[in-house]
Amino acid sequence: MRVFVGLDIPDQIRAAIARYTDGLRNFAPDVRWVRPESFHVTLKFIGEQKLEAVEQIKRELATAKATPFDIAFRGTGFFPSTKNPRVFWVGIHASDALPKLAASVDDSVSRTGIPRETNPYKPHLTLARAGSGRPHPQPGDRPNNKLARLADKLESLPQPDFGTMTAHEFVLYESKLGPSGARYSKIAAFPLEP
Fold first, then answer.
1. pTM (2 decimals)?
2. Please, which residues bridge with residue 101 across strands?
3. Domain ranges, ordered by start, for the chain
4. pLDDT of residue 180 exceeding 80
5. Which of 54, 59, 98, 179 is deepest in the core (most CB within 10 A)?
6. 128-175 pLDDT tens trace
């Protein structure tokens, strides 16, 4: 079972982002666009786990603590850069409560033997991927310019603002890979308490 921890987003923000991406698809027709029902904010990617391990992860996630906080979805960008775009994303703007929650999630799942994150937490909402879709090139990756035309187009447009939400819970998701992309289902939700 392939799992990750993230934040769900409200339907009105999901719809606003979907309308925005609908107008951009012709500028990058050969990339993998994320379906609106799959929009989320990742806190921790865990990967393949056996069912027993997922049960242990759920128990540990219940110990992660944070209070509700606001998240604004505005602006767009590319990883690793606009000169070599591989991932197209929406910006996430929140107080330090968001990286603290990601750290708490990381701490809790590390008790199950899952390695801790080594890179700083960079919150974003992925809209499209080109090539491998990894934010940073890996040995053996070929040059990829499938997002270059979109990056050029966005330089002349104002940065979008999709709205603000209050995070009240985080979720353990299952990710099932298929020919039309990954499909996510909620395994368990964990409330953020004031």
1. 0.88
2. none
3. 2-191
4. no
5. 98
6. 998 754 444 555 555 568 899 999 999 999 999 999 999 999 999 999
